[in-house]
Amino acid sequence: MIVAGGGPAGWSAARACARRGLAVTLVDPHPDRTWRQTYGSWGDEVPVTGPDALDPSVVAASAPVWAIARRTHRLTGSYAVLDTPALQAALRHDAVAVVAGRVVGVEGGRERAAVLDDGRRVPGGLVLDATGATQALSRSRRRVGRAAEQTAVGVVVPSAVARRVTGGRLTFMDWRPSHGRAGWPTFLYAIPLGGDDWLLEETSLARRPGLPLRELTERLRHRLVAHGLRPGEIPLDDRSRVEHVRFPVDTPAHRSPTGVVPLGAAVPLVHPATGYSVTRSLATATRLADALATRPDHGDVLDAAGRAVGGRAASAVHVMRRRGLDVLLRMPSAEVPEFFERFFSVPPEAQRAYLGAHDDVRGSMRAMLSVFVHLSPRLRRHLIAGSLLGAGGDRIDQNGY
């Protein structure tokens, strides 16, 4: 088996399969590169038990969750921030053969091989495409218009500094417009990183095209100054203390060559509202490895792998969530905070069903209905229009954003 891509999705699958005695080769252009993204999830989604359990030490911090729209809301459950170096180390497995290179294609029949950009061939049978949103092994890279992107700029500060902004609360979303800018609304995402560090991040939810990082930097600076921080306490000029985020949330499905199964963002089933994918990749890796370990026949392997990774239920839930993305993209800027005020007012089980439960069709339908019932008539009209009209086009607000 070959895994193309050495991010969390690729290494999760490689580790789970190797733990079951399967021969695995992982190919990545920079296999020793350190992951620098910050990963978070709902606490109960981190697999600290089960066949592919991670040591609890991969959780750098866990705390109750708060959200602010028009009012302040305490959300149900806890939020876990992962220790990225610890996660990367935990997903490594000595039985996985690692090859430095970039997979650009596949060839052969039953005895399939990955073709690298320098002409090398790596034999391995089944190929797992974990190349992310680039979908390197896609037969069709067709994209209609610009991708909707989530963008963010964050700065790492000591906990005492962060407390003056957040009151010490882990803040999932703070929609108050203290960034001082008109146009497309953004929110503050504030999380502890473990030790004495906190990440304060100005975030633009899905938007087509994504809000520029320069604009987010200035919004974050203005927001933190408005909360009483001095310029010297906001190290936005120190690259080691700054995080930039940009990723697509509506990557179109692609047609993989025979014998290739996509993983992670290459599927693509990234949550279009949150961008969460890491804990989903971990859960998928366990299902995939269990399926492959019990299917010695090549044809059965392909079928089992496809069902373990995607499946009809997960695809149906993703279609519903993409409709939710369409609603957001078409919603007038001034209405977005009000929409989330209504969302955070629905029953907790409905919130979690929408933000998690990736293959629970009934739960997702109930959650979306619950949100609809709680909306004002004006927001209901926006929801219906977004659902009927489909993906929103490019959005240009005043000030060019």
Automatic annotation (TrEMBL):
It comes from Actinomycetospora termitidis. InterPro entries: FAD/NAD-bd_sf (IPR036188). SUPFAM superfamilies: FAD/NAD(P)-binding domain. This is Lycopene cyclase family protein.
